[in-house]
Specification:
This protein is mainly β. The chain has no helices and 8 strands. It has one domain. The protein is elongated and about 65 Å long.
Amino acid sequence: MYLRQVVKEKIEYSGISSYIPDNIKAFTQVNINEIIYIDKSTPDLSDLVKVELKSNISNSRIVKTPRGKSLDGQYLTGWKLLSNGFLDVRLDYCSNTTNTALCTTKIKIPFNCGVTLSEKSTYKSKIINTVFIEDIHADILDKKSALINVNLIFISENCE
């Protein structure tokens, strides 16, 4: 997977997908907003320097679902791929101490999603499931917390 680095408002964001396939048939988009709390024993936040993300799908399974058309117009095929995993987040920041130290905090943010599959799918279908990071944004909330916003797209392709 091709990843790129982007600098926005003096913050470097790493892990954004530089390529997202087109002509996809089975996908879902997920937005994750997570508050990251800095440990009380570490220096306070003053400036964000870098936010780095890596996505990991830890489990996927195909499930049978109802068929039909939902109230919002989505067609339900009777098959869905459920996936869960986590985002590895590394947050580099400057502290407001006298020596302006560079500090790092690492956390895991869990996620789960469902992608509606083709009506020809079965429990034995061979599916390639990939998550792409479309965008990342971060803001300092106070001296001990920051908000991370991540836009993900999950693409599920039938290999058969």
